Amino acid sequence: MRFTASMGVLALLLSLLVPAGAQTDLTEDPAEEAEKVDYDAISMDLDQELNLLVFSLGMEGEELPDCTAAEILTDGEEPTTETEGCHVVSIAGPNGQVNHGSVVSAMAHYLGPGKGKIMRHVAKSNFGKGDQMVKVDGADGGEEADAGEEADTEETKPEGWIPPGQAKKQGQ
């Protein structure tokens, strides 16, 4: 009983000596800890000429860096910027197309897991929509039909062909 009381007093004294919010797990790398932050504010700007999204991240209420005038460096493998607090990500899809889905996908890959609050802002944005879309012929496997043309949807199926999911029903 005496040992338990002593340990309780020791724990109380130690808690008074360690400042509130201090990192007590010495095995945790501070850089890794910073990557785990789920930011909830984002400022984005689109460079349509280069198909790049320039953005800064922060917490609600913080003043975010203005990345609209950030100089984009494209001499390396990945585009970058030297403007502090700004990030650059290519938003073009695998065939060079740009649409809202490619913007959201590029940001998700760039940020990695655990960034749900920011991804919600990106998904609700209008980036990659309307005039910001870049269509590429054959980007989805074939030529796109013009609005006035009717796409050839008639497919030839072998005689006795049964749609998937129906074969099991007919065999019962």
Structure characterization notes:
The chain is α+β, with helices and mostly antiparallel strands and 172 residues long. The chain has a domain at 36-132. Helix content is 28%, strand content 13%. The chain contains five helices and five strands. It has a three-stranded antiparallel sheet. The protein has a two-stranded antiparallel sheet with strand order 3-4. Strand 3 and strand 4 form a beta hairpin. The model is unreliable at 21-27 and 141-153 (pLDDT under 50).
Task: Spell out the blueprint of helices and strands.
Elements: H1 2-17, H2 30-35, E1 41-47, E2 52-58, E3 72-73, E4 80-81, E5 86-90, H3 100-111, H4 116-124, H5 166-171
Antiparallel strand pairs: 1-2, 2-5, 3-4
Provide a brief overview of the structure.
Helices cover 28% and strands 13% of the residues. The chain has 172 residues and is of the alpha+beta class. It has a domain at 36-132.
What gap, in angstroms, lies between the N and C termini?
Answer: 72 Å
- Shape designation: elongated
Q: Which percent range describes the beta-strand content?
A: 5-15%
Numbering strands along the chain, what is their spatial order in the largest sheet?
1-2-5
The description of the largest β-sheet is: 3 strands, antiparallel
- How much helix, percentage-wise, in residues? 25-40%
Our count of helices gives 5
The count of DSSP E runs of length 2 or more, i.e. the number of strands, is 5
Mean pLDDT: 74
Radius of gyration: 27 Å
* Sequence stretches where pLDDT stays below 50 over 5 or more residues: 21-27, 141-153
- Compressed to H and E, one letter per element, the order equals HHEEEEEHHH
By secondary-structure content and strand pairing, the structural class works out as: alpha+beta
